[in-house]
UniProtKB/TrEMBL annotation:
Region (Disordered): 264-300
Biased composition (Low complexity): 279-291
Name under which the protein is recorded: Uncharacterized protein
Domain of life according to the entry: Bacteria
């Protein structure tokens, strides 16, 4: 009986050494650190010479085998195959969930033109890659994948959220979404309290420069200009000044001023027209009067 147990111990020792070598080999190839105990479960069955202690070795394998749903080749009396080893590795290498994944938080006011920022507390373990996506009423906004978002006019009446997706090798890729903002308020459009008619300064002569005067608007807007000739836009003439050309002779010039400001209705005002004199007509030549010859007096 003592010899039998000694044989079992020697067989177990050989198996553990073999399993240790295999563990090191698998770690070098796959990057997975598998315990020696795990690999004892996939040792081949005993050789014929060791059949006398097969029952005891099988019992030992069952005792030291880890708890797993993968069937051990030793338990089926067969040598380990590539497929069985892969199933065992896959079961051992299954992705684990993050233990802490706090949702992102949005800071800033959800008002048109304002900037929102997404902040996320640390995940456990730390995600090696984090990506963001902004959503309006649950629909992702194309191209908005940074930690900042500027509220658009199109967002009026909607709520905004941000989603962060974290990933790390060996862990399940996880997405967390923030609480929604309040609905973006629809802006109230006001009117300018003062928007005077512009005037034109300068002489309406060919070669001279005219200047548009917008006047004093309340509140002060951003101005744009367009010049017209007989009511038709002059191509490319959108500055505050205009140089009169030959094409303007005999026409009427005017300027239109447009004022724009966020929160106010866009307003347009047009100046009175200024006439440009036409070409000076050339006077027809006047014929010189003919002088009648003076009669020569005759002698009496």
């Amino acid at each position: 009986m003592g010899e039998h147990h000694s044989a079992v111990r020697r067989a177990s020792t050989r198996g553990m050494r073999s399993a240790s070598a295999r563990a090191r080999l698998i770690a070098a190839i796959t990057g997975l650190s598998l315990g020696v105990t795990l690999l004892v479960a996939v040792e081949p069955t005993a050789a014929p010479a060791e059949a006398a202690m097969a029952g005891t070795a099988a019992s030992l394998a069952r005792v030291v085998a880890p708890s797993t749903s993968v069937v051990s080749p030793a338990a089926t009396d067969g040598a380990p195959t590539t497929a069985s080893m892969m199933r065992l590795l896959q079961a051992t290498a299954a992705a684990a969930p993050f233990t802490a994944t706090p949702a992102p938080v949005i800071t800033g006011k959800a008002v048109i033109g304002q900037r929102l920022l997404a902040t996320t507390a640390r995940w456990t373990p730390t995600a090696t890659t984090s990506t963001y996506a902004w959503l309006v009423d649950g629909v992702p906004v194309s191209g908005q994948t940074s930690t900042a978002y500027t509220v658009r006019a199109a967002d009026a009446g909607s709520v905004i959220t941000v989603a962060v997706t974290g990933s790390r090798s060996g862990y399940d890729t996880t997405t967390q979404t923030s609480a929604p903002t309040a609905a973006v308020p629809t802006p109230v459009v006001a009117s300018f309290t003062a928007a005077p008619t512009p005037t034109i300064s300068g002489s309406p002569q060919v070669g001279f420069t005219l200047t548009a005067r917008a006047g004093t608007w309340t509140p002060w807007p951003t101005f744009s200009y367009s010049w017209t000739r007989d009511g038709v836009l002059i191509a490319g003439q959108t500055g505050v000044t205009y140089r009169v050309t030959e094409a303007d002779r005999g026409t009427a010039l005017a300027v239109t001023v447009t004022g724009t400001k966020t929160g106010y209705s866009t307003t347009t005002r047009t100046s009175d027209a200024m006439s440009v004199p036409g070409a000076t007509p050339t006077a027809a030549p006047t014929a010189a009067p003919t002088t009648a010859p003076t009669p020569t007096p005759t002698a009496a």
